[in-house]
Amino acid sequence: MDRPEAHQHGTVSQNGCLSDPRSWSIAPNSLLAIALVVASLIWGIRIGERELWHDEVYTLLEARGIGYGAEGPQQGFTANELDQFNSFPRVLRACVFMDSGNGTAYVSMIHIWSALFGTSPVALRSWSMVLALLSVFMLYRLGNLLFPGRWVAACAALLLACSPLLFTMAIDARSYMQALFLTILATLLLFRLMKEERPGRGLVFLYGTVAGLALLSHYSSCYIIAAHPLVALQQRTPWGRIARILPAGAVAVGMVLTWLFNGGFAGLEQMSIYNQYYVDQLKELPDLISFYSATSPRSLVEGWGVQLLWASGNGLQFAGPRLRSVLLLLVIPVALVLLVLRTASAQKDKRTMGSLLILAVSSMLYATALALTSGHTVSFQAKYVVFSLPYLALAMAWAAEIAFRERGPSLQVARAAAMLGVVIVAASLVLAMNAPSPIGPDRYQEYNTSIVKELEQAPDAEVVLVHSSWTAAYLCAIYSEGSARSLKHFVKPDLNAITGLFVNGHADEGFEVIRAQDPRFSRSQPHDDPTWQLNNDSLPNLPAFAPVQGTTH
């Protein structure tokens, strides 16, 4: 693989500009350390201040082997009875039932992780944070392989660590960070395999295993199936070397097939139910604009625009300006990439930028294909572009390095664009850190204290917990402690509160609201999936009651 000459030699370039990386005052390793420390601080401060939102609740329930309705504990279960569902076979079954089998490798890992560190929001999210830090480090390693000067790698790592999108995803108990880490590692191994004249079997097997685990961590990582072969061809890898790498594909395919015949196909059937739900919604409301809309030229352009903005570290589209105005800011990363292509032409290294662009746009092309075949744009949610982040970060870091290393009138404009890009990324990160959250503060300990207090006031009464949703019932049971673990939980969907105590036989017989609906935190509300017919037929005959909002805790 050709290397940029200016990166291989610490010499004076033809225009007289010193290009020796050692002339910089901060070592690349130090910049990497700064990136990791900054990321740890800005993520760690926020990791535990919010309770689990409904998608994270899916992760928790799947890791505990709990599904809705007939797939989970039935009416009248206690917290102690939940433990019998916490087995590996039930974890896989819950993943199929609740998440269409997507992220089975991640949920399996969280099953182990939560057994070691607990099920608190901090414990569950910490695995994502660890993997996000490893992703930053792995991008640095990939940059070192592609750009021996290492400054590009260090700057790209810092850019990734400060991405406003990664900030939100790194403290989210979902499978994206595991899939991101594994896809970057797989890409690093691919470039190592293309570099080796006779790659060893161990390296080939490792690449196949990592690629397979990435596919089983999130379905959207399947872009590597098409992107990696294209990169190998675009890099003009000799056919004999490609033939030696092919067994890695057999390893990855074997892993995926094993999963498909052990739950994966059932998960795909469930996914078709979800897809049909979105289609039916759009038939009833063709102008619906939610986290998805009907596929059209306009929605596709907007989807690409939003994803490219996020991938380039720009989150200003949510600060107030109209999307059509903020899209103009895409001129900055595009101009920098074109600068590299022009400069790389003289350095005979267009192929490196071509590989980065293939890897950066593959996930967006995959999203486009899904939108065209399904009729809706669920695939264009901003979080799915997290797989493009590392490669676009490398491309922009390389462009900035060239802009500040070389001289010329056009490069002065490029330097100004690079500095403006840094300001935009920093402003976007600050906005993301201070944005109002649709997720409420973590109050499960407070709710548990309220329940125990009520039990102490009615030691001889028959007390049960009644919920308006299955998620509220499962969560309240999982986080209950002490005497509250023996309470029975029931679901009554027409209840106007989320969770309440029904006291039968106490002097103050009645219903006490423990957790009320709070419209300020929409993502904290229970989110029973509307595509399922929940089993609510076994609810015992309870006296009619109405929640008393004045007694809400």
Structure summary:
The chain is 58% helix and 4% strand.
Walk me through what this model shows.
- This protein has helices at residues 5-8, 28-44, 54-63, 88-99, 104-117, 121-146, 151-161, 164-169, 176-195, 201-217, 223-234, 239-284, 297-311, 323-326, 331-346, 350-374, 389-405, 409-434, 444-457, 470-478; strands at residues 462-467, 488-491, 499-504, 510-515.
- Mean pLDDT is 83; it is low at 1-24 and 531-553.
- It is mainly α and 553 residues long.
- Helix 17 (389-405) runs antiparallel to helix 18 (409-434).
- It has 20 helices and 4 strands.
- The chain is globular and about 85 Å long.
- Helix content is 58%, strand content 4%.
- Strands 2-1-3-4 form a 4-stranded mixed sheet, covered by helices on one side.
What structural category arises from helix and sheet content? mainly alpha
Instruction: Report the average pLDDT across residues.
Output: 83
Rounded radius of gyration (Å): 26 Å
DSSP helical segment count:
20
Q: Name the beta content range.
A: under 5%
Biggest sheet layout: 4 strands, mixed
What's the overall geometry?
Answer: globular
Q: Pick out the low-confidence regions.
A: 1-24, 531-553
Oligomerization: single chain
- Say how many strands there are: 4
Order of helices and strands: HHHHHHHHHHHHHHHHHHHEHEEE
Biggest sheet: strands side by side, in what order? Answer: 2-1-3-4
Helix content: 55-70%
Instruction: Give the terminus-to-terminus CA distance.
Output: 65 Å
